[in-house]
């Protein structure tokens, strides 16, 4: 099992490039199910979740070609024949995004059998919003032995108000509605850039969609979609992680190939912490402004502060003068990194959904355990400023969502190396 070894103390200097967004690429790959034609996706990140999605689509009968290097992270997907519309548990048990094939499968084939999703154990992410929406569109859904089975002759347009904002629920039902009969209106929709990215692909495939990126989306169903070419958005969470890496190490780091408009909440908070920020058209430069200052955050749906940046921000807060309050409103079990940070010397207390971080505290090297994707990134950030050599176990969590993470950091001065088998390299 792979480990990272990180020696702290180096400021990060130079330019680091952001990859495509895993959380955009996964639903866009699922959208290829909706057409018999070829869908070409560019800027696909080389991460484990993408490989899992490739296996999933291939197991259903799709032809999937993942190209990296000279192919510029381009993926060709052709779902001409879906001979086995089943998302098998042994394939999807490590990935939450398995639920994203439910809507497109039933819309395209009239039947879908999908294992209940896995992924990071950061709290309940109920699939009932997917089920309720598809049932409102005319599907019959049963649950049996850990699988959801859905059937429908053809989905019907529906007016759906989400009980709570859900990114994957919005995406799943959006894909289903493109081939439904009549008009669908969805309210209280997720407004994340990943939803907008998916909608852009669907529109390129011939879907009729209005309002993506707002709370209300209207979809006029069509009889058939066609192939398309689409470039995936930059990964705003990877970009944010690198911005914090530059800030926490007191470096001068240019985060390139990103979309600054998607980073507004984080940039504003870093400025409150005393970090100097320069924003360009497709890059953000972060520089030390002296001692970091404490600032509170509350995670919210986009455009609020993202839950996927909470753990990384907490690492930064340990190095800020004063007391920072971190309130987690999205997932109820997303403080699993806290005990590992405390092992490194952090002063953090938890009460319910609130963590109180008292800084500045010197961090020390330790052997720590990665519990989920973003917690892994948080511990790497803490290790970058810890005294001595920190060993991080179970970094396979990090490989799910960050492309060549240690190589990118090493390129700007971090002392980080991987021990064990290396994903994606021969």
From TrEMBL:
Subcellular location: Cytoplasm
Pfam families: EPSP_synthase (PF00275)
Coiled-coil residues: none
Gene: murA
Cell cycle as UniProt keyword: yes
A GO BP entry: UDP-N-acetylgalactosamine biosynthetic process
Sequence positions bearing 2-(S-cysteinyl)pyruvic acid O-phosphothioketal: 120
Keywords tagged on the record: Cell cycle, Cell division, Cell shape, Cell wall biogenesis/degradation, Cytoplasm, Peptidoglycan synthesis, Pyruvate, Transferase
Enzyme class: transferase
Designated name of the protein: UDP-N-acetylglucosamine 1-carboxyvinyltransferase
Function, in words: Cell wall formation. Adds enolpyruvyl to UDP-N-acetylglucosamine.
Taxonomic source organism: Tunturiibacter lichenicola
SUPFAM superfamilies for this protein: EPT/RTPC-like (SSF55205)
Xref: InterPro entries: Enolpyruvate_Tfrase_dom (IPR001986), Enolpyruvate_Tfrase_sf (IPR036968), MurA_subfamily (IPR050068), RNA3'P_cycl/enolpyr_Trfase_a/b (IPR013792), UDP_GlcNAc_COvinyl_MurA (IPR005750)
One GO cellular component term: cytoplasm
Family the entry assigns: Belongs to the EPSP synthase family. MurA subfamily.
Superkingdom classification of source: Bacteria
Enzyme Commission number(s): 2.5.1.7
GO terms assigned for molecular function: UDP-N-acetylglucosamine 1-carboxyvinyltransferase activity
């Amino acid at each position: 099992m792979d480990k990272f070894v990180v020696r702290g103390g180096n400021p990060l200097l130079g330019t680091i490039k952001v990859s495509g967004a895993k959380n955009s690429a996964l639903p866009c790959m699922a959208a290829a199910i909706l057409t018999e034609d070829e869908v070409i996706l560019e800027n696909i990140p080389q991460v484990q979740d993408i490989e899992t999605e490739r296996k999933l689509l291939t197991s259903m009968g799709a032809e999937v070609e993942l190209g990296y290097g000279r192919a510029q992270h381009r993926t060709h997907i052709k779902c001409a024949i879906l001979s086995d519309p089943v998302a098998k548990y042994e394939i999807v048990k490590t990935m939450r995004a398995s639920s994203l094939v439910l809507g497109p499968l039933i819309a395209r084939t009239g039947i879908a059998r999908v294992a209940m999703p896995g992924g990071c154990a950061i709290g309940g992410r109920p699939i009932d919003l997917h089920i309720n929406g598809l049932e409102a569109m005319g599907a019959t859904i049963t649950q049996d032995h850990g699988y959801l089975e859905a059937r429908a002759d053809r989905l019907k347009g529906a007016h759906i108000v989400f009980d709570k904002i859900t990114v994957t629920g919005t995406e799943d039902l959006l894909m289903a509605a493109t081939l439904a009969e009549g008009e669908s209106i969805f309210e209280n929709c997720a407004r994340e850039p990943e939803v907008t990215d998916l909608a852009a692909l669907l529109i390129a495939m011939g879907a009729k969609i209005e309002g993506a990126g707002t709370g209300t989306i209207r979809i006029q169903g069509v009889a058939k979609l066609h192939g398309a070419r689409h470039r995936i958005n930059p990964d705003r969470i990877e970009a944010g992680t690198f911005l914090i890496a530059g800030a926490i190490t007191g470096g001068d780091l240019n985060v390139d190939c990103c979309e600054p408009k998607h980073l507004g909440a984080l940039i504003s908070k870093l400025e409150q912490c005393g970090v100097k920020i320069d924003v360009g058209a497709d890059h953000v430069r972060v520089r030390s402004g002296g001692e970091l200052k404490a600032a509170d955050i509350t995670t919210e749906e986009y455009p609020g502060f993202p839950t996927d940046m909470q753990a990384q921000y907490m690492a930064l807060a340990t190095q800020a003068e004063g007391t920072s309050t971190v309130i987690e409103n999205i997932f109820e079990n997303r403080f699993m990194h806290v005990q590992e940070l405390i092992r490194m010397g952090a002063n953090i207390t938890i009460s319910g959904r609130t963590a109180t971080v008292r800084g500045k505290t010197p961090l020390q090297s330790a052997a720590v355990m990665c519990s989920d994707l973003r917690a892994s990134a948080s511990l790497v950030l803490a290790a970058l400023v810890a005294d001595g050599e920190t060993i991080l176990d179970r970094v396979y969590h990090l490989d799910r969502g960050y492309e060549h993470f240690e190589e990118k950091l090493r390129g700007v001065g971090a002392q980080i190396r991987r021990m064990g088998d290396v994903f994606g390299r021969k």
